[in-house]
Amino acid sequence: MRKVDQKVVQIFFLALMFVMMCMLRLWFAVLLFMAAGIVATLFHRKRSYCGYICPMGTLAELSGQGSGKHLVLPKAIRVAAFVLFFIVLSLILVTRWGQTQALWQSLLQFAITIAVFTILVQFRYKKRTWCTSLCPIGTIQGVISSATAASPVVDAERCTQCGACTTSCPLPVELAPPNVSKVDPGKCLQCQSCIKTCQFQAIEMN
């Protein structure tokens, strides 16, 4: 899928989420997108959902590349954020269940809070920091795809270490040797931007 096509798909699903949540007021839209991400990863064996469908990922990309360094959080904080996300989500569902209007409002507020936080983090740090450091669904997808998905492999003999592949990658992934010769599949969206960017044909999916 070409980059221009990827943007079209991203905007389509972002608009779909807006229509479902804000216009049709379907409270389950958030849960539907979350489930779609996990199911897609299980069947597709890669994180295509993150690269093409996830509304938060699209918002992050549309917000620009940021101005600072990529935020690297300790594992304890990432685990705490993961647990907190599902605690809050569970509390909303339990306390608002059976109250359609209240349930919709709470989930919408929850989604907007995360969206605003995603954009603010993106302005401050580089690339898709929310996706790689905090997103709970991305964490689950990363675990699944780490064991099953293909990822870019760099041919050290052909690579000139120009850095074009790393620059084109939407995630904070170092591709060029001597940093790495094979990317962790759990950190790769399989968008193949690195392959398309490399003028020396030094990268392939394996």
Strand order in the sheet with the most strands: 1-2
Rg measurement, Å: 18 Å
Number of E strands? 2
Secondary-structure element series: HHHHHHHHEHHE
Strand content: under 5%
Question: What is the average of the pLDDT values?
Answer: 82
Give the termini separation. 18 Å
Description:
- It is a single chain.
- By secondary structure, the chain is mainly alpha-helical.
- The chain is 61% helix and 3% strand.
- The chain has ten helices and two strands, in the order ααααααααβααβ.
- It has helices at 3-23, 29-44, 48-52, 55-62, 75-96, 100-124, 129-134, 136-148, 164-168, 193-197, and strands at residues 152-154, 203-205.
- Strands 1-2 form a two-stranded antiparallel ribbon.
- Helix 2 (29-44) runs parallel beside helix 8 and helix 5 packs antiparallel against helix 6.
- The model has no long low-confidence stretch (mean pLDDT 82).
Name a few traits of the molecule.
two-stranded antiparallel ribbon, 206 residues, 10 helices, mainly alpha, single chain, 3% strand, 2 strands
Topology:
Elements: H1 3-23, H2 29-44, H3 48-52, H4 55-62, H5 75-96, H6 100-124, H7 129-134, H8 136-148, E1 152-154, H9 164-168, H10 193-197, E2 203-205
Antiparallel strand pairs: 1-2
Summarize the structure in short.
The protein has 206 residues and is mainly α. The protein has helices spanning 3-23, 29-44, 48-52, 55-62, 75-96, 100-124, 129-134, 136-148, 164-168, 193-197, and strands spanning 152-154, 203-205.
